[in-house]
């Protein structure tokens, strides 16, 4: 069965001078639930997981599960280029009640397609909750092929893929073997409807950090057969989406949240503030979308 259908937010991690700002994280989680988000993905790329310590990640997993209290699924980002490290984090996520884990393909050291099968099989064998494979070759330098995913899809604990290759032909290939036991989620906010049209069931979204209802409504409209509304919402976020990715994620979305008065704190190095020209562009698109700037 699918972990979720609809829009899962790849939620930012708010930081303060002491580390994770759990008071603010709680506010964000409550707001996401109130605005229709269908799942929480904690400690992913958008959450700046690469700069979080293991203790911070573990605390964030547990806090999120406790705060959400079963209202919607919680999926923990436990990916690593070290298989044993990913297994450790995945086991902990399961122990505190996460509903699934999201594991990015190994980066830097990378591996072969056979290595990817061995990596994900080892993780999936170590836990009893679903693994979502995260394919984002623009960041990791490695693409997980459709045939490799098909092999992995037969594992009882590998429940789907967050597909962010941007390669629509590959998306179609994956769609050919998706079923109730292996689900495809868009990893690109600007390609949600195209992916849904070939068998996807949702999105793991950056835009949902500021427009959760729009992303939820887009997916749910499509799944309920209202393709026209879904298409209108997809086209309607295009300019905002482009502004939110005019610099590396999550620089723009975290900046946008602060501009909207959500006070999610600073970025952690090596991420830095936006260039002035890009900041002006982001402010314009936020206003044009209907937001009121607070900062």
Keywords:
about 300 residues, alpha/beta, TIM Barrel, eight-stranded parallel β-barrel, about 15% strand, globular
Task: Give a quick rundown of the structure.
The protein has helices at 22-34, 54-68, 83-95, 113-126, 137-140, 146-152, 168-175, 192-196, 212-223, 227-236, 238-244, 251-259, 276-289; strands at residues 6-10, 15-16, 19-20, 39-42, 74-77, 100-104, 131-135, 158-163, 183-186, 202-205. It is α/β, with parallel strands linked by helices.
Description:
The protein has a single domain, classed as TIM Barrel, CATH 3.20.20. Helix 3 packs parallel to helix 4 (113-126), helix 4 runs parallel beside helix 6 and helix 12 (251-259) packs across helix 13 (276-289). With 295 residues, it is of the alpha/beta class. The model has no long low-confidence stretch (mean pLDDT 97). The chain is globular. The protein has helices spanning 22-34, 54-68, 83-95, 113-126, 137-140, 146-152, 168-175, 192-196, 212-223, 227-236, 238-244, 251-259, 276-289, and strands at residues 6-10, 15-16, 19-20, 39-42, 74-77, 100-104, 131-135, 158-163, 183-186, 202-205. Helix content is 44%, strand content 14%. Strands 1-4-5-6-7-8-9-10 form an 8-stranded parallel beta barrel, surrounded by 6 helices. The protein has a two-stranded antiparallel sheet with strand order 2-3.
């Amino acid at each position: 069965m699918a972990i979720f259908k609809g829009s899962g937010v790849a939620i930012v991690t708010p930081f303060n001078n002491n580390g994770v700002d759990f008071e603010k994280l709680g506010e964000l989680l409550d707001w996401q639930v109130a605005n229709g988000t269908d799942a929480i993905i904690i400690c992913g790329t958008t959450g700046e997981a690469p700069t979080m310590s293991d203790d911070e990640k573990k605390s964030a997993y547990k806090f999120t599960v406790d705060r959400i209290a079963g209202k919607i699924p919680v999926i923990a980002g436990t990916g690593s280029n070290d298989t044993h490290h990913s297994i450790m984090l995945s086991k902990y996520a399961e122990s505190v009640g996460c509903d699934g884990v999201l594991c990015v393909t190994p980066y830097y050291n990378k591996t072969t397609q056979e290595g990817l099968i061995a990596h994900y099989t080892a993780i999936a064998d170590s836990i009893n909750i679903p693994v979502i494979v995260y394919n984002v070759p623009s960041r990791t330098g490695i693409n997980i092929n459709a045939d490799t995913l098909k092999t992995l899809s037969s594992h009882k604990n590998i429940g789907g893929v967050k597909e962010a290759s941007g390669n629509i032909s590959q998306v179609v290939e994956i769609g050919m073997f998706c079923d109730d036991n292996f689900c495809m989620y868009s990893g690109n906010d600007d390609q949600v409807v195209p992916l849904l049209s070939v068998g996807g069931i949702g999105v793991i979204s950056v835009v949902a950090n500021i427009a959760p209802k729009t992303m939820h409504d887009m997916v749910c409209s499509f799944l309920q057969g209202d393709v026209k509304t879904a298409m209108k919402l997809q086209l309607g976020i295009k300019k905002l989406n482009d502004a939110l990715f005019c610099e590396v994620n999550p620089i723009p979305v975290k900046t946008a949240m602060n501009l909207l008065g959500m006070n999610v704190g600073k970025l952690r190095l090596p991420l830095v503030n936006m260039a002035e020209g890009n900041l002006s562009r982001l402010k314009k698109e936020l206003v044009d979308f209907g937001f009121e700037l607070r900062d």
